[in-house]
Design goal:
Layout: H1 4-12, H2 18-31, H3 41-47, H4 57-67, H5 121-135, H6 141-159, H7 164-188, H8 192-209, H9 212-228, H10 232-248, H11 253-269, H12 273-289, H13 304-317, H14 321-334, H15 340-356, H16 360-376, H17 380-391, H18 400-409, H19 412-420
């Protein structure tokens, strides 16, 4: 009889035809860096036949990634005996929970050559990782951080109990989870030391998955740590590594432009905004040219609008005030409503532009908008931009407008929240 399990999984995932699934698998291959793989309708038809061939590892990875089912639940049967004796529950060492701020050890190797977890483990774990990715947009970072940390710890344990394709799927989801954890620690909670250690764990997981795009994203994020600390040589070294991994993938135009933007921000913070502007112009050219490669689903933090936000901040710090105002106002007008964190950053930069133009009333109005947004979506990086703009208003600190800002910036709740974070 035909492979009804695969057909049912295809239709449940929203792919009404075999061609639709073939197209989705081909897109996923490009996202995952599986170069040269094109899945045809004929291949899907063979898989849905009454004698489906056993897919090779790359095809297995694509099927699990797209359909979120283990390969054994898609109607395929391995041509060899995969049975193994059950491992008693006590075979794995107990795991002690650790505090979210405690640096964690490196990822373990598998406890044995055979996995003890079912083939569903990678796909099941990835579903939660994807949910955390979406929750990041709307959830308070202090609340989300321990949940993501616990999920990453669970993935680390499971990785030692998993093998085969399920291990690669799990490792990629774990790498994404650790990348998110590091982003929260660095951008939302201002814990650069903890973030640096988390990015190391994320890179280890990406290596287990052999996912070069994830490796590039992790390395570029890790460059922010020395870059924001004024260590440009160390930041550049990490960016060279990030570009090397991106070249192996291959990377989409959006990913390549983002790498330029990351390096530009590091240069800006290290006192070289002119070189940063040259890189940002190159990033704009890359985006305009486009590419055949697709961005992966987890690449959610960058767009043409975000690139303008990078440029506006660099123009501000380069002293190009009229240009910065134009760039940032256009950015603010085009930001989606869901991008509250970036809105705070842009409002803070615009306030600094007005302060530099000696327009304190306009600067304070923008800062109050930023504080309104922070009350909805806390973002430590955004609060730092607000504070930078407020410092630029020092000569007008006795004015009513600045004092209104101070009353909100240093309210009981805001001050306590800032100290606690």
């Amino acid at each position: 009889m035909p492979n009804t399990a695969l057909k049912a999984a295809r239709q449940a995932a929203g792919y009404a035809s075999q061609q639709a699934l073939a197209d989705a698998l081909t897109r996923a291959a490009r996202q995952l860096g599986l170069n040269g793989i094109v899945v045809s309708t004929r291949q899907v038809r063979r898989w849905e036949s009454d004698t489906p061939p056993w897919p090779n590892q790359d095809y297995q990875r694509l099927l699990v990634h797209v359909l979120h089912r283990p390969i054994e639940e898609l109607g395929f049967h391995a041509p060899w005996n995969r049975s193994r004796p059950a491992t008693p529950p006590t075979s794995a060492p107990p795991v002690q929970p650790s505090a979210p701020t405690t640096p964690r050890a490196a990822l373990p190797r598998p406890y044995g050559s055979g996995g003890t977890q079912p083939g569903t483990v990678g796909a099941d774990y990835a579903v939660i990782t994807e949910a955390h990715r979406r929750l990041y947009l709307s959830t308070a970072p202090a609340a989300l951080h321990p949940t993501v940390a616990a999920h990453a710890d669970l993935g680390t344990v499971l990785l030692g109990e998993t093998d085969g394709v399920a291990r690669r799927v799990l490792a990629a989801a774990l790498a994404e989870s650790l990348l998110l954890l590091g982003r929260i620690e660095f951008f939302d909670l201002c814990r650069p030391t903890a973030a640096d250690a988390t990015f190391v764990r994320a890179l280890q997981a990406a290596g287990e998955a052999d996912d070069c795009l994830l490796g590039a994203a992790i390395l570029a994020h890790s460059a922010f740590v020395p870059g924001w600390d004024g260590r440009i040589d160390r930041a550049r070294e990490r960016m060279v590594a990030a570009r090397t991994y991106a070249r192996r993938a291959p990377a989409s135009a959006e990913v390549l432009a983002w790498l330029d933007a990351v390096e530009a921000e590091c240069l800006t913070r290290c006192g070289d905004p002119r070189s940063a502007l040259a890189l940002l112009r190159h990033a704009e050219d890359v985006l305009a040219a486009g590419s055949s490669a697709l961005s992966p689903d987890w690449f959610t933090w960058f767009s043409a609008v975000r690139l303008r936000a990078f440029r506006g901040n660099t123009e501000l710090l380069a002293g190009l005030i009229p240009q910065a105002r134009t760039t940032l106002e256009q950015t603010l007008a085009e930001l989606p409503d869901t991008d509250g964190k970036q809105r705070v950053v842009v409002l803070g930069d615009l306030a600094a532009v007005e302060a530099a133009a000696r327009k304190p009333e306009q600067a304070c109005a923008l800062l109050e908008q930023a504080l309104d947004q922070l009350a909805v979506t806390w973002y430590a990086t955004g609060m730092e931009r607000v504070r930078e703009a407020r410092r630029a208003l020092a000569q007008w600190q006795d004015s009513a407008a600045v004092q209104r800002v101070d009353d909100r910036l240093y309210s009981w709740s805001a001050t306590l929240s800032s100290l606690q974070r």
